Description:
The chain has 194 residues and is α/β, with parallel strands linked by helices. 42% of the residues lie in helices and 15% in strands. The chain has six helices and five strands. A five-stranded parallel sheet has the order 3-2-1-4-5, with helices on both faces. Helix 4 links the parallel strand 4 and strand 5 (150-153). Helix 1 crosses helix 5 (174-182), helix 2 (52-70) runs antiparallel to helix 5 (174-182) and helix 3 (89-102) packs across helix 4 (117-132). The longest helix has 19 residues, at 52-70. It is globular.
Amino acid sequence: MTSAQNILFVGAHPDDLEFLSGGTIAACVAQGHQVTMAVATNGNVGSHTRSKNEIAKIRHKEAQAAAKALGAINLIWMDEDDEFLFDDKKTRLKFVDAIRKAKANIIVTHNPNDYHPDHIACSKLATDSRILSAVRLIETEHAALSQAPELFYMDSVAGLQFIPQFYVDTTKTFEKKMEALKCHDSQNSWIKKI
C-alpha cells in the first residue's frame, strides 16, 4: 500500500485481533495507515469468579488498552453477548455502521473456515456488511461509503483450513503485539485455569 488507508480490523472477541493480527495492526500503524479495531462480542462469559457485567466491563477496558498499545485510532465495541454472535438484522446493522464509522477502505476479519462459531459468524457478518456499507438506502448512524472496501481474512488459530495469499512481516512489531496481548490479563488468567 502506498497511500494511507483506513483499515478496519474486525474480531469476534476481545483479544482475537491482538492474537491473530496484532503484529499486522502495529505494522499498518507504523506505515501511516489509520487503523480502527472493532470487537463484536463483549467477552461476558470469560470468567469463573465474576458476573457477566463485571467481566464485560473488564474486557472492554483491556481491549481499549490493547488498541492503544497497538496504535489504533479507535476501538468500536459492538457489545454482543459472548458465544452468541448471530447474523440478524440488528447485528448486521451494527457491522455496517462500524464499517462506515471507520470509513474503511480495507477490512480484515476472521477466516470463514475458522473453528469457533463466533469467529465464523463474525467473518460472515463482516463479509456481508462490506457491500451493504456502500448502499445508501440502508440507514445507520453513519453515512454510506462511496464504495465497498476491500476484504482480507486473517489466519485462523494454528492455520487450520487457511491458505494464505499474502504475508506481513511482523518481526519489527512482535513486541507491540506481545504488549497488547498482556493487556488482556483477565483472559490470560482465565485460560490458564481452564
